[in-house]
Design goal:
Strand order of the largest sheet: 3-4-5
Strand content: 15-25%
Largest sheet: 3 strands, parallel
Length: 111
């Protein structure tokens, strides 16, 4: 896949520049280079999602099971509105979801 000028890479670059321990997953991009650092796509599993402080959704690949990801993540920053079509009761059981460009939805505290 052609990753030139990829917005998700800019997000990853910014996080790494700020000192974040950032990893990525993309089923179509097995490896990327960010500021000279070669990174391999990590496998997504419940442990990886649970251990992450935040999951940033920067692509809307249809191959992802968003319902399952929401159920296992702590916090999701959804830049692609991939969580918008999930049933509200399912969203309520999973992660706190912050949508860029939309009001935040905090299902854990009810606000």
């Amino acid at each position: 896949a052609d990753t030139r000028e990829s917005p998700p890479l800019a997000v990853l670059e910014g996080l790494l520049a700020k000192g974040a321990d950032a990893v990525y997953h993309d089923p179509f991009v097995p490896e990327v280079t960010v500021d000279g650092l070669s990174l391999a796509s990590v496998s997504i599993n419940s442990e990886v999602l649970r251990d992450a402080d935040c999951v940033v959704v920067a692509t809307d690949h249809r191959t992802y099971d968003w319902d399952w990801i929401v159920a296992h993540a702590n916090l999701i920053v959804d830049t692609r509105n991939v969580t918008g079509n999930l049933p509200s009761d399912r969203r309520a059981q999973g992660a706190r979801i912050v949508k860029l460009g939309a009001p935040s939805v905090n299902h854990l505290s009810g606000t």
